[in-house]
Fold each of these.
Amino acid sequence: MATTFEPKIVGFLCRWCSYAGADLAGTNRMKYPSNVSSIRVNCSGRIDPVLVMKALALGADGVLIAGCHPGDCHYTNGNIKTLRRFKLLQKMLDQFGIERERVRLEWISAAEGERYAQVVRSMTEQVRSLGPLNWKRELEATA
Amino acid sequence: MIKQKLAFNWASSCGGCEIAIFELGTKLVELTNKVEIIFWPAIMDYKYQDLEEMPDRSIDVAFMNGAIQNSENEHMAKLLRAKSKILVAFGSCAYTGGIPALANTTTRDEIFTNSYKDTPTTVNPEKTLPQTKFQAKEGELSIPEFYNTVKSLDQVVDVDYYVPGCPPVGEQVTKVITQFVDGLSPLPPKGSILGASDRSLCYECKRVRDERKIGRIVRTYQTIPDPQKCLLEQGIICMGPATRGGCGSVCLDANMPCRGCYGPLPKAIDQGGKMLSALSSIFDAQTEEDVQKIADSVVDPIGTFYRFSMSRSLMRRTKK
């Protein structure tokens, strides 16, 4: 089973930096796994912890949030707000029993195509080695 | 005049919701002029058999409080559903899981081990744990099965209305019951939340808000808060921003923070997540280290943010 498992990762990418970074990785024809389904958002500050949990509860094996580097936010401090939420969310996800490697926050600028590819590669491998999260089945099995 | 038939029942609960109905006092006596209470095990001697023998849909309105934590709770929920025209999930436990649903952060095995083996006051030399069936000389005995995951009422049966609160405040209970009994206005659409406001508790809070910034989290036992100022600004986790109002802000008047018993706001799918978001956005920190420090001072995120809403949250339980 483990050999056929392909992680499903939801990526929330900020429009101004990280999505552009992902675009750059594409136009430069960099190779990286296709496991991240990217969703473009205007700012990483738009990412409510509820969205992360919803993704996990509905079947994602991991969630990547990527935004501009601190100080570079198009909206001044949206990414800092995400950082604050992320740190507390991380603590709460620990309690839920979800491994830290499954939910990551990364700063990726529009010029960092290689970094985006690298993040996706490493995250895919980490989640792959953790195995499927399968939250729904977990709930049914432990009813 | 044909009297309306009412029923009250409890599942996994503390009995506080029953007290909330008693809180009506003399109004309860007046109410019995208009309605007939045909089932209420908490106050009178009813047997489950009485309910089983009633024809289907013979109860006009049934109020069920408590979460679903064992097979007996589930059986009674299904029975009451079959016998009633309208089923109301009464109180936080029936609505969102309530305090019993915090058991979803652990497992049945852990609960049994703790309760029947590890607690210092337990005397159980044979390490006996509850069994659903036991073969006695006289025949087979059985007790309900304890569930691993606590559910809200609507996760086992179809529910018509919800009344939040731990317990629902007396004034709101009167309003809700009158609404059913008087029949003056048409009933709200199925699935409505009754006896609560559609806005957050902050709208009815009388405390003064300035600039919301939290430098550190303090717990209620560590401080005596300023009774005029917003509790969040004083570093106390108050669930007000993520919780429905309508309770009359009784906790805040007693200088205690909101614990979130009136449940999530309309359209919010996860009360705890919303509160986590509201709280952490106002951390007074810019760097990773500073943010981490404040986040670390939140002692028990699940127990704080999902104190009453674990069953109706996105994750619903912890992974074990």
Amino acid sequence: MKIRLTSVYVDDQRAALDFYTKVLGFTVHHDIPLGDNFWLTVVSPEDPDGPQLLLEPSDHPAVGPYREALANDGIPLVQFAVDDIAAEHDRLVGLGVTFTQPPTDIGSAVVAVFDDTCGNLIQLITEKRDAGTGD
Amino acid sequence: MGPLTCKQSLAYGAEVADVYRALDDETRRLILDELVRQDGQTLFALCSLLTTKHGLSSTRQAISQHLAVLESAGLVTTARQGRTKLHFFNAEPLAVIADRWRLPEHREDT
């Protein structure tokens, strides 16, 4: 069994496509009209055969309260790995992205949380190379 | 500072008691430490620091209740950034205590 697809609910699929490709740097994998919406997935150019992220319409009535409660407490919905979290933080801030948690050392890794402008908080992580050695 | 009226004095006493009660807990003191280190944090960020850095196993609900105690004592204030609630350290209640029992070298009348 493999994890092939995961999803985040987005307020507006076209705006989300812009943010996830132009700001975050992912590439479109599927963009297929589906009724009033789209089957819209992106992948990382560093891992094009890796898991796809589905940018899913948020029209179900349960989505609003669910995301509202998580955003209030600062809880991210998905995690992306980067090689250099400090550089990525600075790059994204330069593009106007808001962080609810700046890069923070949690021992085995450095994490940060930003607002994807589509209704979600996203966690970035850079795992330390020496993680697990007890240093 | 002039003498407090009876009513002010009672309110003042309750405030000081709240501050001491809020500080009488190691988890709440660690929360304040982390806010002093990095002000304006989310509940999620504080929970992750308390778990990973301080080895606490408190639930999110427990940390939320600790924050409510700190907030009611005036030691923590909150503000919204978009849809997200951020927590800030407020030292003013401690200044009231420091002013009431000042260190000798800080007394103006000596």
